[in-house]
Amino acid sequence: PILYSYFRSSCSWRVRIALALKGIDYDIVPINLVKDGGQQYSKEFETLNPMKQVPTLKIDGITITQSNLSILKKVGQETQLAWAQAVISSGFKALESVLQSTAGKYCLGNEISMADLCLVPQVANAERYKVDLSPYPTITRIYKTLLTVEAFQVSHPSRQPDTPPELRA
Ligand SMILES: N[C@@H](CCC(=O)N[C@@H](CS)C(=O)NCC(=O)O)C(=O)O
User: What is its EC number (predicted)?
Assistant: First the structure.
């Protein structure tokens, strides 16, 4: 698998967490969303993902351009079936409800759900922008606990191949 990713992109981080939880080895091709006016706008990348966004995951002979679909693809047969039915029957609106209803339900391993997986990058962004998280002690506790899990650590924005030296941890 190849993941087109930007170290700081929360959507990319979600997919990196899922791949790490599932123990899937993959290569990263960094797409810098800022440099050169945004490498996501290059002709080469546009051919791969006409939405011109990361993450983009090449896996099992297909290219997936939505982070949640990339994650679902690896969650399990049952979820994939629900996903396929939703897309076939009524398009992406239904997919949203599948994602919502499966978010807390399907574990990716270590009792970690899609909801947990989505929470961590969002809270990290909140921290980055100095949002006061004191009214949300439960979220903060879950966030801190999840950050002790290896899959969240290895996929962290501070440890990516394209992380600038001054932001490395
Ligand atoms: N629905 C998409 C959203 C992807 C997305 O918004 N990616 C952002 C980074 S987190 C991006 O590539 N932004 C570049 C741009 O908009 O130019 C997903 O979940 O994968």
Answer: 2.5.1.18, 5.2.1.2
